[in-house]
Design brief:
The chain has 356 residues and is of the alpha/beta class. It is built from twelve helices and 15 strands. Helix 3 packs parallel to helix 4 and helix 10 crosses helix 11. Its EC number is 1.2.4.4.
Length: 356
């Protein structure tokens, strides 16, 4: 997704870097120095900062010692030592359980789950231990220093064990935060084809992105589109295509799913009168259903059409049929009720057939 920084900043060329596939251009924007990075490089930079600024920080998981399968931890073990960056056995329940204990002792534990699909063996540790740790002690102790990082969603060839989007499972659990960044800048401040495909100008210094605060990344007046993570790239293209038809789309990146920013979405829908939600996870029980129900409760009298969802299918994630499963910009929704009295000539866009 294109960075807005490029419109306001002066670009400089610097010598190439041997750090993976990190981009080598640097941008000066006022007093801020930024680099063009893809997502995995931005995460690597963030982990460097975390380990360097806090001696209580640790990074561990399967294969992280040599850089991980996506190279997000490249160079960390060499720089900070194998006592702080280390491989673990192939046991997700044990990995997360160890992270909970480490965080409970006042440390910062950054746990890597190699693919989000592998997180299910750790489900009990996450929902029954980590999420309830503070509550069960009456706030006497907690594991708030625990971060679990896992790349989710389609990779282009992953099939049903490397392409799942399990975010809705965890959004049902009070006590944890579920965050899905859409880009390198968001990822560093706050995960799989975005690792290397998306490039954005990212500040080199330490900074934070506020959680539970959605971002209106494109303003519009006819319809609100809501998504998160990699799907934002698809939805932005849909907005551009719709614009050619005279349809003004407001695009919102939810960023944090638990707790999510209801107020920003509500304000947008009250303005546009229409809402379309898209995510890669199957439609039934997906987080889009929660957004739909909430907006119906809050904006019923302002809605000019039913809320529409364009999501993954209620099937195991396929291998060779991945293109048919994914919610793309040309995929039609089961709902075709986005018609507008003010644009009755051609605003019935058949769900996503012209929007996504």
């Amino acid at each position: 997704m294109a960075s807005l920084l490029g419109r306001f900043c002066r670009k400089l060329v610097v010598p190439g870097s041997a750090h993976g596939s990190r981009m080598t251009s640097t941008t000066a924007c006022g007093s801020e120095t930024v680099k063009s990075l893809n997502l995995y490089s931005a995460i690597n930079q963030a982990l460097h900062i975390a380990l360097e600024t806090d001696p209580r920080s640790y990074v561990f998981g399967e294969d992280v010692g040599f850089g991980g399968v996506f190279r997000c931890t490249t160079g960390l073990a060499e720089r900070f030592g194998k006592n702080r960056v280390f491989n673990t056995p192939l046991c997700e329940q044990g990995i997360v359980g160890f992270g909970i204990g480490l965080a409970a002792m006042g440390n910062r534990a950054v746990v890597e789950i190699q693919f989000a699909d592998y997180i299910y063996p750790a489900f009990d540790q996450i929902v029954n231990e980590a999420a309830k740790f503070r509550y069960r002690s009456g706030n006497q102790f907690n594991c708030g220093g625990l971060t679990i990082r896992a790349p989710y969603g389609a990779v282009g060839h992953g099939g049903h064990y490397h392409s799942q989007s399990p975010e809705a499972f965890f959004c049902h659990v009070p006590g944890i935060k579920v965050v899905i960044p859409r880009s390198p800048r968001e990822a560093k401040g706050a995960v799989v084809w975005l690792y290397r495909q998306a490039v954005e100008e990212v500040p080199e210094h330490d900074y934070m992105i506020p959680l539970s605060q959605a971002e209106v990344i494109r303003e519009g007046s006819d319809i609100t589109l809501v998504g998160w993570g990699a799907q934002l790239t698809v939805m932005e293209q849909a907005c551009l295509d719709a614009e050619k038809e005279g349809i003004s789309c407001e695009l919102i990146d939810l960023k944090t799913l638990l707790p999510w920013d209801k107020e920003t979405v509500e304000a947008s829908v009250k303005k546009t009168g229409r809402l379309l939600i898209s995510h890669e996870a199957p439609i039934t029980g997906g987080f889009g259903a929660e957004i739909s129900a909430t907006i119906l409760e809050r904006c019923f009298l302002k809605l000019e059409a039913p809320v529409s969802r364009v999501c993954g299918l209620d099937t195991p994630f396929p291998l060779v049929f991945e293109p048919f499963y994914m919610p793309t910009k040309n995929k039609a929704s089961s709902s075709s009720s986005l018609s507008s009295p003010s644009k009755n000539t051609h605003f019935l866009i058949h769900g996503f057939s012209r929007l996504l």
